[in-house]
Design a protein that fits this description.
Elements: H1 7-11, H2 49-54, H3 58-64, H4 73-79, H5 84-92
């Protein structure tokens, strides 16, 4: 039995995409593959944060070198107004 899409599921095409780099053990590789290419728009880009860091000035690199940043999918969705407790409950059939 297939469940109907939740609000969070529909957000995937609206929100920015993310690979598993936010996980404690991230994937070694990321791949961006187009299944259908629009004649207009569709300006999807791939950003390499390692390259962005390398291009920072030395003062900024020194300031942030010991910082740790953690991505939270739940936080991002909640900022957009989604009730993630409810979304996860629907997915796991707790409601």
């Amino acid at each position: 039995m297939t469940s109907s899409p939740t609000k969070a599921d529909s957000l995937r095409s609206i929100d920015s995409l993310s690979d598993s780099s936010f996980k404690a053990i991230p994937a070694k590789y990321s791949l961006l593959s187009a299944r259908s290419i629009s004649k207009e728009g569709g300006n999807t880009e791939f950003a390499d944060m390692r390259s962005a860091y390398d291009n920072l000035d030395e003062l900024t690199q020194n300031k942030i070198q010991d910082m740790i940043c953690e991505h939270s999918l739940i936080y991002s969705r909640q900022r957009l107004g989604f009730d993630m407790v409810k979304e996860f409950a629907i997915k796991t059939k707790y409601i």
